[in-house]
Amino acid sequence: MRIVSGEFGGRRLKAVPGMKTRPTTDKVKESIFNMIGPYFSGGTALDLYGGSGGLAIESVSRGMEHAVIIDRQYQAIKTITDNVAVAKQPEKFEIKKGDSNQIIDHMDSSKTKFDLLLLDPPYKQQKIVKDINKLVELNLLADDAVIVCETNQEAKLPDEIDNFKLWKRQDYGITEVSIYRGE
């Protein structure tokens, strides 16, 4: 695994040890960012199921100003911390350990609006629609936010979630990427 492009491009990232996470392949990561960017001029990203932190780190490498990465597993948090160190700009990242729902309940929408939402939950725990609805309810997403959902083929996400409409959908073997944009 590596950072594909941008300021930190080419640097190697670690995967979370064990079988509890499934890192996004470099090919899928590159495709995702080519579909949504490929580069950004500022903004804030939220990765609710950080895993290795690769998607959030890639977003900052490509121009996001800041990224918040959440995961509840100790090994994932350790790996994210190590991978953020590879970027050599830790001030651009905020790493939070815990349940994503509990953490977002305590975020202040007057201080933070996310421009990019990265959702790659464990395939067996598909609650993407519920997560998006909660973030909208808490007013944590910018009106024109982009939402990237990485699922398996069985997830069958709808064409519209709250004020966000399906923009692009692409299959990569067992992985499906659905991208939504705010109206």
TrEMBL record:
Single biological process term from Gene Ontology: rRNA methylation
Keyword Transmembrane helix part of the UniProt annotation: no
SUPFAM superfamilies registered for this protein in UniProt: S-adenosyl-L-methionine-dependent methyltransferases
Gene Ontology MF, one: nucleic acid binding
Record's keyword annotation contains ATP-binding: no
UniProt entry keywords in alphabetical sequence: Methyltransferase, Transferase
Annotated signal sequence range: none
Pfam families named among the record's database cross-references: Cons_hypoth95
Xref: Gene3D superfamilies: Vaccinia Virus protein VP39
Record-linked PANTHER family: METHYLTRANSFERASE
Protein name, UniProt field: Methyltransferase
Organism, as annotated: Pediococcus argentinicus
